[in-house]
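Good morning,

Attaching, inline, the backbone tokens for the sequence recovery test we're adding to the shared suite. The designed sequence is right after.
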């Protein structure tokens, strides 16, 4: 195992609970997580303006006092949900890349795997993920504390993405001459850039055309023929 492998993080590590956490802390974490999940569902179905804290409490099966034990006010609750939306979307994207790398021993088959990983512009699930992440970014512009938390989270995501790039480079899948930070940014920016297609789906490329283009780009970065 080389130094990079020994220090590399995985997307699961960010959300893993420490084994030494006390029982009371685990209960508190579970309640907080439930409140965030319930609020997330309500925001998705009703929008932020219609969100009522008392309804969150009812749906989560807790008292109003419990909510305010975990969140200072309604704004703090919503901010926590936006941050969690951002975190989950990023971790899911990185998890898929990691699992793809786990199935490869080297460059052989990498282009075909890339074709399976490419997010199509017309994929409704990922369109929803983009909307959630954009909501979180937009909210952070008006909430300095949320903005700082998101900056810290994005920094952690960048480290995880760069570790995955370095792993791919060690396997010979990505050209080692390519800067890992630049490649990690590209991996994150391309899926988010599909928001442009969301604005005008009529003139957006077909899913097949988009996949073909990115496979060609990926093959060039790998130094592998796209016909592989």
């Amino acid at each position: 195992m080389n130094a990079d492998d020994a220090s590399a993080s995985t997307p699961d590590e960010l959300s893993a609970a420490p084994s030494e956490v006390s029982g009371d802390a685990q209960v508190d974490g579970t309640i907080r997580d439930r409140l965030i999940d319930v609020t997330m569902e309500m925001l998705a179905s009703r929008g932020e303006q219609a969100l009522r804290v008392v309804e969150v409490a009812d749906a989560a099966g807790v008292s109003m006092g419990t909510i305010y034990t975990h969140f200072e006010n309604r704004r703090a609750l919503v901010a926590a949900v936006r941050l969690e939306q951002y975190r989950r979307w990023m971790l899911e994207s990185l998890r898929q890349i990691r699992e793809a790398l786990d199935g490869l021993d080297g460059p052989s088959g990498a282009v075909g795997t890339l074709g399976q990983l490419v997010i199509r512009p017309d994929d409704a699930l990922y369109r929803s993920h983009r909307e959630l992440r954009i909501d979180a970014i937009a909210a952070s512009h008006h909430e300095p504390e949320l903005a700082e938390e998101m900056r810290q989270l994005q920094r952690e995501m960048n480290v995880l993405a760069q570790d995955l790039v370095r792993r791919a480079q060690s396997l010979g899948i990505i050209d080692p001459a390519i800067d890992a930070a630049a490649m990690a940014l590209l991996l994150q920016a391309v899926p988010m850039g599909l928001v442009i297609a969301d604005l005008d789906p009529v003139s957006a490329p077909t899913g097949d055309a988009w996949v073909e283009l990115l496979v060609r780009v990926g093959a060039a970065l790998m130094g592998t023929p796209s016909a592989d």
